[in-house]
What does this fold into?
Amino acid sequence: MNIVVCIKQVPDTTEIKINPATGTLIRDGVPSIINPDDKAGLELALRMKDLHDAHVTVITMGPPQADNALREALAMGVDDAIHLTDRKFAGADTLATSHALAGALRNLTFDLIITGRQAIDGDTAQVGPQIAEHLDIAQVSYLRKLDYDGKRTFTIERSIEDGYEILETEAPCLVTVLSDAFQARYMTVKGIMEAYAKEVKVWGFNEIEVKEEDLGLKGSPTKVHKAFSRGVKAAGELYELDTDEAVGTIISKLKEKFII
Amino acid sequence: MNFHLTKEQALFEQMIRSFAEKEVKPLAAEVDEQERFPEETVAKMARVGLLGIPVPSELGGAGGNNVMYAQAVEELSVACATTGVIVSAHTSLCIAPILESGTPEQKKKYIPRLASGEWLGAFGLTEPNAGTDASAQQTTAVEDGDNFIINGSKIFITNAEYAHVYIIFAMTDKSQGVKGITAFIIEKGTPGFSFGKKEKKMGIRGSATSELIFENCVIPRENMLGKVGKGFGIAMKTLDGGRIGIAAQALGIAQGALNETVKYIKERKQFGKPLSAFQNTQFQIADMQTRISAARMLVRSAAFKKDQGEKFSADAAMAKLYAAEVAMEVASKAIQLHGGYGYTREYPVERMLRDAKITEIYEGTSEVQKMVIAANLLK
Ligand SMILES: Cc1cc2nc3c(=O)[nH]c(=O)nc-3n(C[C@H](O)[C@H](O)[C@H](O)COP(=O)(O)OP(=O)(O)OC[C@H]3O[C@@H](n4cnc5c(N)ncnc54)[C@H](O)[C@@H]3O)c2cc1C
Ligand SMILES: Cc1cc2nc3c(=O)[nH]c(=O)nc-3n(C[C@H](O)[C@H](O)[C@H](O)COP(=O)(O)OP(=O)(O)OC[C@H]3O[C@@H](n4cnc5c(N)ncnc54)[C@H](O)[C@@H]3O)c2cc1C
It folds into this structure.
């Protein structure tokens, strides 16, 4: 079985600060990490490798420093890595990103494509489903459990708001994975030593099957209207009262604010 | 001159920090309080390759280097010094002498299982009457055909009954003095080899420290490490390398204490301000950080020289001497800046000061490090 995992290098948003004057993210000095959902996706792929001897390829589209994310994936145990990078990809929104990734995927054989549900910086959750549409294959989003019959059939648990669904689908298919579904393994020391000895294939526009107008800024219909940071709410007040007093307090507070 | 980590070392730093933070730190207070050897952590470390870092991959190791080994012991010790010394004793005191002085057969038999963490290693040099003066060995090994018969005892042995392989020193010829000491590889379960008293300690309380007892313990000649009479040299060379590990442990303790302090002084308010607003507090942490960075330079440069195959004995001694002093000073200041809270077990700095003390004692006391450094100057 061949698995391809799409990973995105993202700024560690737990350490990110917002410039109060401009409302934009301050990315300087913020460490880059593999998007958490994608790390869970890597873990899922590596478990399939352990159980079913799957061959795992990891792919990312990003600037030169995204190489680090690929080395980390190699050190965790994936077999091959592909880095999509080209000036022509720059300025891509989700649609252009998914076109580029789909173009690269057309060069590969796969039974299963794994993406994260969403990236913690872009947060759209669109790239995975878009790739599946471009490739015209089945997709299952929000995967939390995967079983494989060893032939062609996947049985998948898919999280929904108040429970889960069980679906069955055939290879090839694309799944999007939730970060808390699979606790990612650590890189091993040996894996780290070997990660830089392995070759990362670097592909640009010429190496993939995609139309130039679908890429980069040209292929990106999304226009950012305005970026702003959500206002910080004041800390709430906590009252511990019995029911009658509580009702009275709420009413007087609402009156105070002229809500009622 | 290049002060940067290699790409591999930088990636490793990312991995070991997250491992120490998530797997080691949560257990640190508990293993100290209960004097419990963290076996589950050892199993986890084995899985990710932390028990065979500077071991060639042909022998089942990670194929890493001594700088990475020092990074590992440092970061583990930031979280828990007990865990740091388990790795240090195993790697520097058991794997290293077999790698350096073992026969091909010995390496094949022991290294893969030690490097994978299937077996843990230990080192027994110290005896009740042979501490700093390690040449005064009273344990004896008497040749008997193809065997040696070992009698005597070793004290304060780290990893104790949790180890499987022990590097043991014994007198094969008392008349020869230091030239009469020979090293052996002894496995747990060998008849005549048992464990004595377990020490109750001030710090690194999760680390097991016990007496080893040998009563007519028969060891085949093929388990002799190096040649007859060459044991003392092996011991000294082993300790040279081990000092890098202990220096890294001390460095980690100091860094851990500073990390806790920086966090605390930003939160704790007195006189209407966080403690971090007082200039005295700022000057304290500036001094702490400066010394820690200096200690790190010494540790990394000793490890780097060892990796390059250069002489590193005095460098390792300076690293250990200085890092141990820094650990004591920084941990003590950390408690001071925490005030009364720092003196209680509610906060980890109390444990860190207790843990720091041992780094001035084992693998050569600070006085011994000074002897090594001075001897190097005067030769
Ligand atoms: C107008 C516009 C311009 C932009 N310009 C840039 C730019 O110049 N540079 C830039 O870096 N970003 C840019 N972005 C953001 C970037 O296009 C999106 O972050 C990206 O398309 C992914 O979308 P997302 O983060 O919402 O991912 P989601 O759709 O939330 O991600 C879902 C999953 O898709 C996969 N995935 C997403 N992105 C990648 C990738 N690059 N490689 C491999 N797998 C991936 C991952 O598995 C991920 O978990 C721009 C966005 C807009 C709207
Ligand atoms: C927790 C722990 C773990 C240990 N683990 C191991 C282990 O795994 N394997 C092992 O073999 N040993 C181990 N040791 C032993 C340790 O290495 C010795 O305790 C140490 O070398 C000091 O020996 P000693 O305790 O006999 O002290 P002593 O040699 O009695 O020294 C007492 C004091 O006298 C000073 N002194 C001694 N001689 C001189 C001199 N000539 N000039 C100036 N000052 C001098 C010393 O520096 C020290 O301050 C461990 C000890 C402890 C406490």
Q: What stands out?
A: Residues B 89, 123-126, 131-132, 156-158, 201, 209, 358, 361-363, 365, 367 surround flavin-adenine dinucleotide (ligand 2) (CB under 6 Å). The mean pLDDT of chain A is 92. Helices of chain A lie at 36-52, 67-76, 94-105, 127-135, 189-195, 243-256.
